[in-house]
Structures are given as C-alpha cells and as structure tokens.
Amino acid sequence: MRLKLKDLPEENIFSSGHTACAGCGAAMAIRNIAKVLGKEIIIYVPASCLSVFNGLFPSCAWTVPYHHTVFENTGAAISGLSRAMKRKGLDNVTVVGIAGDGGTADIGLQALSGAAERNEDVIYICYDNEAYMNTGVQRSGSTPHGASTTTTPVGKLMKGKQDFKKDVPLIMMAHSVPYVATASVSFPLDLINKVKKAKETKGFRYLQVYAPCVPGWGYEQSKTVELGKLAVECGMWFLLECENGQLKINREPKMKNLETYLKMQGRFRHMDEKQIAELQESIERKWEFYKGYADLTQRLYSGSEASV
Fold first, then answer.
1. Count of other CB atoms within 10 angstroms of residue 274
2. Alpha-carbon distance 256 to 81, whole Å?
3. d(CA 105, CA 239)
C-alpha cells in the first residue's frame, strides 16, 4: 500500500533545533525519510553538512542511535553495524548510512562499491547537493557541467566545471543490487514511497536524493521546492527506480525550461548559449539512454526478449 503524507507520524525522529540553513533541501528530505524508517534504526553519517547541522557534541537532532566517523567509511561502517545487529539477533533493526555526494561519488566510492558488491543488508542514502558544501563549495564528481564552484571558478581560463556529472545510480545498478532509486525533496510522495520500498527490501539498497543547497547554489531560500520541480521538468534530474535489475522511469521529463532552471541559480548564471546547448545535448543523450535501458529491462523481465 502506498503511503500518503498524512500516514507519516507526527513525531520527528530527526527533531527540530538542528542548524541547517533555511531552505536546506537535505534537512527537508531527511526529516521525511526518518519518519518512514521509524525508530528501529541506526543512523551513520560521515563528514558532511549533515554531520554538522544535526548537532555538535553534546547536542544531537537524532532521537535514535547515531554514529559518526570519517569521510570515506560509510559503506564499511554500515556493513559492520549491520553484521553486528545480526550477530546480536536484532534482525528488526535497519542500518542506514546518509552521506553527501562528495562522500558518496568520490571519497567514499570504494567502500560504497564494496558494500554493494557484497550485497550488505543496509540502506545507503546520498543527499545530492552537487558539491562539497560543508568545506567551501568545491566541485565533486556529482557537480553538473558548467557549475561554478570554488575549485571550478568562472574566469579567463575556465567557465565553471568542464566535466559532466558522475552517474552513481547507474554505477549501483551495475552492481546488481536489489534496489536503486532516485528521488527529490520536491516530490515527497515519490520520496517516501521509495524509502518505504527500500525499508521492506532485503540486501543492499541505494537512494540518491536531489537536495538543493541555498548558499552553494546561490538561489532564494523560498525556491527550494520550485527548483526541484524544474530540475525534473527540464531533465537535470530523473526520477527512476531499479528493482532487481528492472528499471522503471517514474516521471517523464518535459525537456523544457532548462534555461529558467539555470538562471535561478548563481552557480549557472555565467553560462553562455554554447554551454547551455552542450548541457542540453548531454541531458537528451542521458534521457535516451535511460529510456532504452528501461525498455530493454522491461522486455527481458516480460520474457519477450529472451535472446538479448
């Protein structure tokens, strides 16, 4: 049965009093995610914005067991926690790692890949704000093409990041794990039901959540939800899920308003027509790939393409 927002409990597992910026997409996502996961969880967070705004010792916004160690260890740490719970007979406890895109796509990729390859019984959530926001807005593997960051500045030699966004969900699909999904703070029903599905699935589950960052992206703090909707509309963010190898597109982008999306954010305002066209072309290529991939897996699982 699909969840509705009214089905979520009133009690906040990630409580008020945290110090996230006004309009923080990560804080918005995590509060709803925690409500779906419930109290029988252990949370692990590496170095990230979340490790700071969820409270510095002795304060903590989490009302469930919470662990924090080093940047690169999320996949390894949650693997150990999960095995410890099983050794103690606590099979009802869900172990959840929540990391930013820097700690996922870059610094933590090796531990993430290892946990996925072993099919550890954990949930890994990446809140994707598309840069190393906690340490000064440096580019990450998840930073989009053209974005201005402190390490991809706009100047004579460079006009923002020249490379394209690393597709970590696709990397996770290549590990043949039970569940991979993308979600967005701007589509809360889609988000909470994907978290519910992840909770009900055994083995390794990976979710990547679009989480706008007000100071890092340079937009007006009341526009977080609007920005997230535009991202899906123009194809900068795809909503999809892959269950046991079968990919499903949850919402088809309209492939319009890319320039509106870009101009809302300071990190993209320098982009000229050539850069915007390059970005548009890459979005369309990626969309055609995902459509083809989804069609192929649908045929394979329906048995109509057994010879592929």
1. 9
2. 44
3. 18
Yes or no: say if 214 and 224 are a contact pair by the CB < 8 Å rule.
yes
Which tokens belong to 59?
């304060």
Give 103: exposed, middle or buried? Use CB within 10 Å, 0-12, 13-18, 19+.
buried
pLDDT 10s digits, 45-102:
999 999 999 887 888 999 999 999 889 999 999 999 999 999 999 999 999 999 999 9
E strand or H helix at 28: helix 25-37
The alpha carbon of residue 177 and the mean position of all alpha carbons in its chain are separated, in whole angstroms, by: 16
Helix-, strand-, coil-residue percentages of the chain, each rounded to 5: 40, 15, 45
- Tokens representing residue 139 in the block: 């580019």
C-alpha of 116 from chain center: 16
In angstroms, rounded to a whole number, what is the distance separating the alpha carbons of residues 173 and 167? Answer: 10
Contact 85, 114 (CB under 8 A): no
> Considering the entire predicted model, what is its pTM?
0.95
Distance from C-alpha of 53 to C-alpha of 215, rounded to nearest angstrom? 14
Q: Which residues of 220-234 are buried (b: 16+ CB within 10 A; e: fewer)?
A: eeebbbebbebbbbb
Which of 44, 9, 29, 69 has its CA nearest to residue 213?
29
Asked if the bond preceding 188 is cis, omega within 30° of 0, the reply is: no
Of the candidates 201, 196, 307, the residue with the CA atom closest to the CA atom of residue 244: 201
> Which domains, and CATH codes, for the chain?
9-302 (3.40.50.970)
CB distance 238 to 182 below 8 Å: yes
Q: Please answer whether residues 180 and 125 qualify as being in contact, where contact means their C-beta atoms are separated by less than 8 angstroms.
A: no
Q: What is the pLDDT of residues 206-219, one digit of tens each?
A: 999 999 999 999 99
